[in-house]
Amino acid sequence: xxxxxxxxxxxxxxxxxxxxxxxxxxxxxxxxxxxxxxxxxxxxxxxxxxxxxxxxxxxxxxxxxxxxxxxxxxxxxxxxxxxxxxxxxxxxxxxxxxxxxxxxxxxxxxxxxxxxxxxxxxxxxxxxxxxxxxxxxxxxxxxxxxxxxxxx
Length: 152
What we know:
Oligomer: single chain
Radius of gyration: 16 Å
CATH class: Alpha Beta
Number of domains: 1
Strand content: 15-25%
Mean pLDDT: 93
Low-confidence stretches: none
C-alpha cells in the first residue's frame, strides 16, 4: 500500500470527509496512562476508572491501546481483567507515548465511503503550544498508526 502523505490541499476534492462523532466506527484509540506527573500521587487511582471506561466502550467496539512495551501491556491486561473487561475486544500496540491524551495526540481519520478508503490526518502535535514537554513520542503516534495499517 502507498504510504506517501496525501498531498492535496482540500481532501474533500478527493471525496474525503471527517465523520461525525456519532458515525459508526470500527475502533477507539487510547494511550495507556503512565506519566505520574499528569496524575500527581493519584495514578494508581486512575487505572480502575480508566479500565471501567474501556470495559464499557469495548462492549460496542474494539478498543486499541498504545502501550510502551510488553511489560506495560501485561500491566494493562491485569488491570482490565480486574474489572472484568473482555480482552478479546481490546488490542494493544507497542507505540510508546509521553502521556495518555490520545484524543489530542492520536490520529484523525478521514473517509471516502464511495471508494472505501481511509486516510490519517496528522495535525502535528505540540502539547498545546509546547506547554507540556516532552511530546516527541506523542507527535509520531498518527504516523505509526498510519504505517501499521498501511494508510496514507
